[in-house]
Amino acid sequence: MINIRKLESELWESADLLRAGSKLTSNQYCMPVLGLIFLRYAYSRFKMVEAEILKNRPVRGGRVLPVEASDFASKSALFLPKEAQYEYLVNLPADIASAGLSNQSGHTMNSLGEVVNNAMELVEAQSEQLTGVLPKDYTMFSDELLGELLRIFNNSALDEVGGDIIGRIYEYFLNKFAKNIAQDDGVFFTPKSLVKMIVNVLEPSGGVLLDPACGSGGMFVQTGDFVNAAGMEANSAMTFYGQEKVEYNAQLCLMNMAVHGLTGVIKSGDEANTFYHDAHNLDGCCDYVMANPPFNVDKVNSESAQSAGRLPFGLPSVNAKKEFGNANYLWISYFYSYLNENGRAGFVMASSATDSSGKDRDIRQQLVESGHVDVMVSVGNNFFYTKSLPCSLWFFDKGKTEAMQDKVLFLDARNYYTVVDRTLNEWSEWQLKNLNAIVWLYRGEVDKYHALLKEYQAVLGGELPFVEKVAQLTGEITALRAEAKQAVEEAAKREKKKVQAEYDERITALEETLTVAKEAVWLYEKFGEGKYDDIPGLCKVASCAEIEEKNYSLTPGAYVGVAAVEDDGVDFAQRMGEIHRELLALQAESNDLMQTISRNMKEMGL
């Protein structure tokens, strides 16, 4: 069983160590390294499909017929000529110039960089979707550095394509590069927990999906995972379309999709500037729209945007220069307009958009009156690498039943998250499930809620009430820590680290189970066996009339209120008196210390 987290971490540390030893920035290093991961994926998939083909291969004249490119096309896999196969590249001699190798054009290749560039060109020749996409700037690496990189990803664990190991590795590297490049333009990456939340709420099951600000393709990849997990085949069930103005990001997207076995049509460059172009002519045609657009963009030309259409609620505010000072409501209008009569949209938006005034407010009123606003979620600080400000998630559903059209679920999740580090928060897998469960109950999908409770019971074992499980696990961890301390003390000096590591692994496993138990308690204490209730400070289902009373604000905090503060049994006046006395004692101690230091300095003649 592969420890995927350990593998991700080890591969990143090895690759980043090489970057640190070179003169390359993360920006320069990102695309070539992701290209090698892609090449490694293509080779793993090639070997797996080749083995399938050879199982029933006809024999002619005592020889098995060789595999051909057409055999692979029928299985949605890339055929790789020998010179593009990873094993071939890894086993090349150290002195490339002496090997007498020629590229596709017949020119002699004198460096490993040239050989890898040639491999990328050979792969592109096999796939129209990848034409012009793969990196071909490997000559900026020394042969030694590039050879080391090739060896890093020549790890047998990466051959478990069925478990999507390489897809995970690609996403992990993309995530890490996004963090490193954040100070420049890390806009290509939407944090995975936000993407998962959007996909989980929309529940894609088939049809046309558009992301008109697709970055590196996270919405497509997560949708593919969701659809495949539901027992369907993503490429058959879904048609993926993307627009991305920055061509570099579009290349990342196409590689990301390919590594996850997905195909799609991605347009980039000026023709893919969504403000001015509906590049795929999808207005009114989409089953799903998902996006994380750039927030608060200004200087968008109003006449060009208006002529491009997709503005069912009219123009947002235009200034004297005939420009939009803030394009948030252009995006919001586009997302709504792209939907067909039963379409669903989910997108990330600046928090300020939920109650901005002027024309924005008028558009918001029309949205509410349409009955198609479904769910609004407030997200806390530090979910992005490039900005620490909070954001919100908006969800539209044109297929809501008549009974649901007068309802909007408001979720304030600003205080519900997991701290990753000092500058980054996220939703864990179980927190995502819990937030999703609130949406299910709002929609009346109680069976899904019950399935989640059973999932918690399966992970935690037995029928113990969740609260009791938390107490039990807490006790076990405390006892194990004490046992570990004693065992380390009694171990021989050379064995102490090993004993500590073994106990740490057991304690970590218990702590992870305890975290799951606490999330189960969080959910069950609020909704029991599956009855939706408004929870102060967390969620509220509001009617259109209630939203009108609040001047069509879509800010969850305006509806959910504040959670009740539990009485901790402490007398406030008494505790403040104790704190005051403690402060006076510390102040006196500080004064004594300063006098002692002053005396000592005088004695030293200072």
Short key terms for the protein model shown above:
606 residues; alpha/beta; Ferritin; Rossmann fold; 4 domains; nine-stranded mixed β-sheet; two-stranded antiparallel sheet; 21 helices; globular
Describe this structure in words.
Strand 1 and strand 2 (63-64) form a beta hairpin. With 606 residues, the protein is of the alpha/beta class. It has helices at 4-21, 26-55, 69-73, 86-90, 112-124, 143-152, 165-181, 192-202, 218-229, 234-237, 247-259, 302-307, 328-338, 359-370, 429-443, 446-460, 466-490, 496-527, 544-549, 557-560, 572-603; strands at residues 59-60, 63-64, 101-102, 108-109, 207-211, 238-244, 264-268, 286-291, 300-301, 323-324, 339-350, 373-379, 391-397, 407-413, 418-421, 424-426, 539-543. Helix content is 49%, strand content 13%. The mean pLDDT is 89. The N and C termini lie far apart (66 Å). The chain has a nine-stranded mixed beta sheet. The protein folds into four domains: 4-167, Ferritin (Up-down Bundle); 185-444, 3-Layer(aba) Sandwich (Rossmann fold); 456-531, no CATH class; 571-606. Helix 1 packs antiparallel against helix 6 and helix 16 packs antiparallel against helix 18.
